[in-house]
Amino acid sequence: MNAQSDYLNPEARARIAIDEQLAECGWVVQDYQHAAVAAARGVAVREVPTEAGPADYVLYVDSRAVGVIEAKKEDITLTGVEPQTRKYQAAYPEQLPAFLVDGSLPFGYEATGAVTRFTCGLDPTPTSRPVFAFHRPETLARWRDNYKEFDGNATLRNGFSELPDLGTDPPGLWPAQAEAIRNLEASFKANRTKALIQMATGSGKTFTAVNASYRLLRHARANRILFLVDRANLGRQAVREFEGFEVPGDRRKFTELYNVRRLTSSQLDMANEAAAKVHVSTIQRLYSILRGEEIDDDLDERSGFDIPLDQPVEVAYNPRVPIESYDLIIIDECHRSIYGVWRQVLEYFDAFLVGLTATPGIQTMAFFNQNLVMEYGHTQAVADRVNVDFDIFRIRTEITETGSTVPAGFVTEFRDRETRSTRLEQADTDIPYDPAELDRRVVAPDQIRTIVRTFRDSLPKMFEDRERDDDGLLVNIPKTLIFAKDDSHADDIVQIVREEFGLGNQGAVKITYRSGQSGESAEKLLQQFRTNYQTRIAVTVDMIATGTDVKPIECVMFMRMVRSRNFFEQMKGRGVRVIDGDQLRTVTPDAQAKDRFVIVDAVGVTEANLHDTVPLERQRHVSFDKLLNQIGLGSRDPDVVSSVASRLARLNRRITSEHRTEVESVAGVELSELVRQITDALDPDRQHEAAAAETGTDDPTPEQVAAATQRLIAEAIQPLAGNPELREKLVDIRRSYEQVIDTATRDRVISGEFSIDAADRARTQVDSWKQFIEDNKDEITALEVLYHQPHGRGLTYNDIKELVSSINRPPHRWTPDILWQAYETLDKSKVRGSGHRVSTDLVSLVRYALGEVNELVAYPDLVNERFKIWLNQQHTAGTTFTDDQLTYLNLIKDRIASSLSIALADLHHPPFSAYGGLGKARQLFGNDFDSLLDELSEVLAA
Q1: Is 920 strand, coil or helix?
Q2: Same structural domain, 479 and 565
Q3: Together in a domain, 236 and 322
Q4: In this predicted model, what pLDDT tens digit does every residue of 836-846 receive, in sequence order?
C-alpha cells in the first residue's frame, strides 16, 4: 500500500490491500459504475447491488458471476462474517448471467487484506479454510467446468468419494502400506487437510506415497502433486521410485502415464507446467522458486533442517506460482523438513499436506494437528519382516571416556580444520582436554585407531558364521556405515579405516555434501556403496542419515553423539532395511541372510538419556494457573516452562475458534506458534547451537549452554511473562472445558530396548502371553477350547483367526512369529520348527504355555508326524496307496495343517481343483472316501 493509505480508515485500507492482492492473482478490479466484465477472463467488481444490498466484490469469470468477497477491517474475526457472505451469494440478481449452484454463487471469500478465508460451495461439505491469497480466475473456471462435466464432482474433495476400495489384500502392497493408504483416504474424505503417516524406516513410506499419488491422479482427478524431500539426493531417489512403480492392473509404469519432474531451477512458471503431474523438490528449492531467486546447487544437496537461518522464512505471493499450484503436498522425512523456519513455505499453498516420518516428535504432531493416521513402529515392522532387528556392540576407550593431556615439551601437530594444513610446535604447557573436545579442539588419532581396530577385531564375534582368514579376521567386511562428527573427523576416520582394514581408496569412502564432489558425484559414491563389492565402509556426517536406502548395510557405527532421539532413530534406521539373501550375497558373498544388523556404539549414544525420552509434562501435580503465576514472577525453570507448553498444546487441540481468536488477539501471536516457540527453546540441539553462535565455539561449556537456554526460554515465553491479561484469559478458557487432554502420552514411541537384553524381553513376552491366556480363557473361543479340552476337539480355523486378531491388537501387537521367537530365545533346545509361522502354530503355543507338552513344535510339523504314523499303521494293516492317492492324501494333510480341518466343499477349490477336485477323490478312493476323510480329520487335527 502507498503512504496515503496511512490516512485512511481501517475499512478503506483493507479495500486497497484486497484490490492489490486481486490484481496479483490475475483479477481485473472495477467499480460497479464502470463495470465491463468482458474486459478480462477474471473481473472483480466493487459494490455490486444484490437483493440483500451491495456486495463488497462480485467475482466474474468469462462474463458470468461466480462468487463474492466480503471485505472487513483487520481486527474482525472472519469466521463470524461467513453468514454475510452466504447472504450475498444467494441474493445475486437472477436476471443477470451467473453460475449458480442451488440458487447461489458457489465461491465465497472473506478478507481483511491481511487474512483471507475461502469456502467452495462445490465441495461435498462446504467448509471455510484459510488461504494465503485468492485463487486465479482460471482455477475457478476449471472447478466450474468440472462441475458440469463430471456430474457435480468439481474439486478434489469431490474426487475423494470416487476412490475405489483398496480391497482386503491388494497385490503389491504390504499390509501396513495398505492400511496407511486406507486411513489416509479416510482422513481426506473427512476433510482433514493435514495427515501424518508414521512408518518405520524401511517399511516403504515412499512406495506407499507413490501408490496414494497414483490413486488420487487416476481416480480423484488431482491436478498436480508435490513430493517434498529433505535433500536433493533423496529427490533423485524419489524420482526413481516413481519411475519404477508399476500401475496396479496395468503393466505400464507410473511415468508412462504421468509426467514426473524434479525441480532443479528457481525459475518456474506454473502456467507452462500443465503436463507435469508430479513435482519433486527440496524445501529450500521451493522457497527459492517462490522468491524467484536462484540458490547454489550445494545448498540443495544439504538438509533444509541444517541450513542456518536466523529466523523463520517469509514468503510473498508469486503470480507465477499461485496458491492452487498443488492439490497435495507430500513431505518426506517431515520431522526434519517442516520445523519452524520453513513452515510458511508449506502453508502458502491451498493443498492437503501429508507427512511421512519414521520418528514423529511433538512439533511434528502439533503441525499435523495430531492427525496421526498411521502408526507403524520398528517392533511391528520386525514382526512383519519389513525390518530386521539389531544387536548393540559397545566399544569404550580411556580417551573416549575421560579425555587426556598433551604433555608440556611434546612436539605436536597443529592443524587448520578447514584447510587441513599443519605445522609443528612444542607445547609450552600441558594441554588437557575432555571427551567433549575430541575431534573438535583436539584430535587423538590413536583414539580413532583403537576404536577402528577394536571394531575390526570384533567382527568375527558379531558375525560368527562368516568366513575368516588365517589371522581369524573376516574375509568379507560387512557393509558398514560410520557416522562422524564433522567433515574433518570423517576425513580422519577414513584414513585410519583404510590403514587398519588394508583397504584402498574405493574400499573405504567418505560420503558427505562436502566430499569435494557435486551432489550427483556423491550419489555415484552412494550407488557404489549400495551395489558394488569393492566399497565396504562408508563414512558420513549426516548425508546418509535419513531416507537413503542402502539395504546391504549390516553395521551402523556411531563415532558421534546425537542429542535427538528422532535423529538417532533415523540414523539407526539405515541398518534396518531387509534384503533378499541372493542380493545380499552379490555384495557380501559369505552372508547367508540379513536377519539383523549391529549397532556399534563407540560414544555411548545407546546409553544416553536423549531428550525425547523426557515427557514435556514435568510438573503434573502443579495447577495450570500456578505454573503461569511462576512465569509471571520471573521463573525460567525448564520444567515449569515445559509443563506450560504441554498444557498449552493440549488446550490448542481443544480450543474453539471463538476462544482461539480471543487468545490470539490478546497474545499478539497464534497459540500454535506460541507452543512452537516454547518447544523450540526447550530443544537441546537449538540450545547448543545458540550457545555455539553466541560464544563463537563449536563446543560451548555447560555453563554457556545453560546461559543460552535461559535467553531462549525468556524470549519464547515473553508473550506470557509480560502479559497478565493473557495468562488470565488462558486460565479462564481452560477452566471452561470439561475435558482435559493429556498429550504427554505421545512419548510412548520412545523405545526402552537399549537397556533390556533379548532374554529379558523374551521372558517378559512369555509371561505376558501366559497371563493373556489365563485372563481370556473364558472369553476367546480358541483359548476356551484348548484350556478346557486338551485335545482341541471342535476347534475351527475361524476360532484361530479370532485369536490371531485378539493378540495382534494393542497393547500387545503379538503375532505367532513374535511369540515363537520369544520361546526360542529362552530355550532353543525345546523349540522345533523353523520357517514362516502360520496361524495354526497358535495351537502349539497355547499348549506349550499351559504345560501340556514338553516341546514347542510347529503345528504343521505335528500334523506331518501324525500323518507318517497313520501311513505306517495303514501299511501294517495291509493297505497300500498309489502315487496318485498319496499326492491327494498329502494335499488333505497340508490343508489340515494350515486350517485345522477339511470339508468336502473344500475339494472344489484350489489346490484340489487342479488335481480333479472331489470327483477325482471319489474316483481314487471309491465309496470309502467320506469315511477316510473323517478319519484323517480325527487323527491329524488339533
Answers
A1: helix
A2: yes
A3: yes
A4: 677 888 888 88
